[in-house]
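Supplementary Methods. Inverse-folding protocol.

Structures were first reduced to a discrete structure-token string of length 99. This string, shown here, constituted the complete conditioning input.
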């Protein structure tokens, strides 16, 4: 029985690019368009690994989607978003300096 020569096969793969996976998660402005995040998510200026919530007094969040979802589902956030609705805010543009 002949052994297949898998040796060189598994080993040298010189054409493989260096595995530089960018693991750093950064804020994605596209998230703002998602229904769950619409209306409250905004970037934190000066730090693209963070985000903040407009309606929770500029609560700072990590720019991880799971964190944002968690925030969205938090009681505090829900309460705040409801309060927002009741107050029926006249959203003034240019009020982005909260965080
Ligand atoms: Zn919030």
């Amino acid at each position: 029985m002949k052994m297949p020569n898998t040796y060189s096969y598994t080993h040298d793969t010189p054409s493989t690019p260096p595995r530089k996976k960018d693991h750093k998660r950064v804020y994605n402005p596209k998230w703002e368009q998602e229904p769950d995040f619409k209306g409250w998510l905004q970037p934190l200026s000066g730090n693209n690994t963070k985000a903040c919530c407009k309606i929770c007094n500029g609560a700072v969040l990590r720019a991880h989607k799971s964190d944002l979802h968690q925030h969205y589902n938090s009681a505090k956030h829900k309460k705040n978003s409801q309060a927002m609705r009741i107050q029926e805010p006249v959203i003034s543009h240019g009020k982005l300096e909260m965080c």
